[in-house]
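Hi support team,

I'm opening this ticket because the web form for multi-chain structure prediction keeps timing out on my end. I have pasted the exact lines I submitted so you can reproduce it. The total is 920 residues across three entries, so I didn't expect it to be a heavy job. Is there a limit I'm missing, or should I split the entries? Thanks in advance, R.K.
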Amino acid sequence: MNIYQPHLMRIREITDETVDTRTLKLEFEDSGLAGQFQFYAGQFGEYSVFGEGESTFCIASPPTRSGYIECSFKATGKVTQALRRLNVGDTVGFRGPYGNHFPLEEMKGHSIVFIAGGIGLAPVRAVIWNVLDLRDQFKDVTIIYGARSVGDLVYKRELEEWGQRKDIKLCLAVDPGGETPEWKGMVARIPTAVEQTVTTAEGNFAVICGPPIMIKFTLPVLEKLGFPGDRIYTTLENRMKCGIGKCGRCNIGPTYVCKDGPVFTATQMRKLPQEF
Amino acid sequence: MNELREVARKLLAEGTVQVVIGYEEGPRGVRPAFITSAEQADKLVFDTRCVQNLAAYLNPRRKQVAQLGKAAVVVKGCDARSVAGMIREKQIERENIVLLAMRCGGVLQNPEKDTELTEETVSVRCAGCTAREPKLFDHLLGELPPAPPVNKSRMEQIAALEKMSMAERRSYWNEQLSRCIRCHACREACPMCFCVKCTAEKTQPQWIDPSSTLQANRAWQTMRVLHQAGRCVDCMECERACPEHLPLGLLARYVADAVERRFEYTASDDPSVAAPIGVYKSDDDEEFIR
Amino acid sequence: MTHKYLSHQGLAALVAELLSAGTRVIAPVRAKDDAGQIDYQLIASYEEAALGVRLPRRSLKEFFLPPTEVLLSYKQTKAGVEITDVPTVAPPQVILGAIPCDVAGLAVVDKVMNWDYRDELWFGRRDATTIVNLLCNIMDATCFCTAVGLGPESFTGSDVMLAPVEGGYLAYLITERGEALLKGHGEEAAADAIAHAEAARKEVRGKVEPNLAAVPAEFSTWLASNFDNPLWKTIALRCHGCGACAAVCPTCHCFDIVDEHISADEGVRRRNWDSCQTSLFTLHASGHNPRGSQSERFRQRIQHKFAIYPSRFGDLLCTGCGRCSRACPGGMDLPTIVSELVALSEAKPEVSGQ
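Hello R.K., no limit was hit. The queue was backed up. Here is the completed structure from your submission:
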């Protein structure tokens, strides 16, 4: 078996998150493998539709839930459009897990602020559920999630669940103009939502993921609050083919997103050349 | 050459253009030059080694060149036809470029190797040239050199291909095209390949498989050469770029000859003359569709 | 290291024995489309080999990383998808008379192909191959192997090196694999043959050295800290972004992975050569391109070869073969560019784009 050979997986569940974003729940065809498969929150894989090709997404489910993985994707290219055409019971390929991960062990005993925009919640969600599944090992959990409009919010059922839990501080926001008459959350962009929700950085970790512009304007807010750069974590994405450091395209200067990332601290990000 | 340098110097000094794209002595013969100050104008050269079609650098895909500002470009008569093509197809505007057109006495096939123009060394594309005195220009420069000797090798190749049976011809092209590695260097070097998204890169649907299998190679090269029909100026940049040394110039010329026979058209240096690929005529001979 | 003397007839006999045993033999031969040119190709007899004539047009890369290769085939059935792996064990092959820079290129690429994940397709072919290179005496003004830590006499990556001597070759048995290949072939080398070959090894170096001074070790560090230097904006003006350089390069190994249908239910996943010089290489599905202009793409080429790869693996991703310069339709000349950059790095070591 060569390293480009995928595992076969079956689609067990399909959830439409938004008009163009979908979540697939995948189970290994080989039940032996399902028991052995291990990963960490933040890692990614190459998902394939046979005949169409491979596409790179993070594993959106937490490692604390075994036997399956989930991925969330927006149908834009050849492979994601084809993934969207598949039904429950269809077969897809999966190679992974690849890359580094969020430092869950280090975060234990600390409070965590999760910040996500749009489909950027997918990798963050893996960490959130990982933390929630081991809730007593962490201090305060704050989730700040926003999207352009109410219709663009993903994982809506989970947002509702998180909103009802007493051990989570949840702040939902949509951009001005993106609200509906029923909207009860904030109408603000993410940096503002963070400013109004987070009061202290002391001993906290921040996990942030979303569009580059959101990250660009939120990092200064976090730094002003006193979050040290090496306690702010994010994930990067770049076009990839192999996922394992060989095909030569995901590097940002000397840094390979597939091998050195996809998880980076704000301090590491600042050192990267402006090529992403 | 002095006249060329003089004009270039003046254009740069007066600020008419910010860059003169021409030829200069490089480490391995003549190479494209991007002259951005009047003092450097003396670097410019023009002789039989200047095979490159510099019109390629006006292609809007060359962002790094466009950033330099308004350009003057040194063209031979054949290259001027590419410029005309780009104007015709709305890629560039005539008033945004200054054409330094050189009267030309032919160029070498292998400037790395040869120096004298002979029947063997002159470029095959110079045979039967009707553009030695360019017609599209802002400055027409140099004395008209004598007509170059005629290199008949490509005409003979085409005549030989014409004599072949369909099966023989197919087998010839199959053998050539089986070597294509689908790097698309031919397209990238071509002044007339400026599609924002090439058909080879369209994936929904996938018109042409991206791997270098004979079937896909044939589909790719056929598609490209047909899209070049009547647009190609026979500059042979595709063949010079090809790392596998495919006879792409021959293929293009073969199609150009067909266009000439059927439509009485050769790539024109008049931007206002439409090319057959962009024209519908009710009396077109359409026997190939039946 | 041990030596053997191998006469021309002895080498011919070795090749005949290999061929009759079914071993693939790859050697430089006269190109089919142009007798003045040389290509590496499978040979059916020793007479086809054209050893030491001139630099082959393409490197050895394609025999280890083919321009296109199948990674797996799949079949859709009612029950699901069946996939069939491809063999990772390659048939035995011998490369005869390769030039040292091409052979060294394979050893350089080995490192990335073994970076945490071992690429069995690459190593399957590598492990099945015995390499006999030939002391290079076919250099031209574009060669610069001595500037990148190699040389026309370099043993890097080779199992046996042949150096021409009176009546045949002196064979340097570099590896055990090389010794095994020559077992039962050749004779004891005379002292004067060894002396002659050693002199030739020194002499050929001297023919390349004037082309480009050795790239200093600090150059990689300087490049890495000059990522945002304005020089990148103008360095690649004449580059068309065609990627012919990558196609002919012995060390350019970047690839694409694509699926192709054979029928409605069957197809293959393939690995194809790719090049960082094309805009599609890094284009995101969103339309965003981190390397949107040729300046950035050419910077990637130089950075990868002279800073990124050495920082990861120690070796420069360049063997100084000069093919990129010969292949370039735009007159980009790597030795000139490198020497200009090196000069810049030495003139202003304090300049930093950071």
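A quick check on our side: Residues 27 and 164 of chain C are 16 Å apart (CA to CA). Let us know if the file doesn't open in your viewer.
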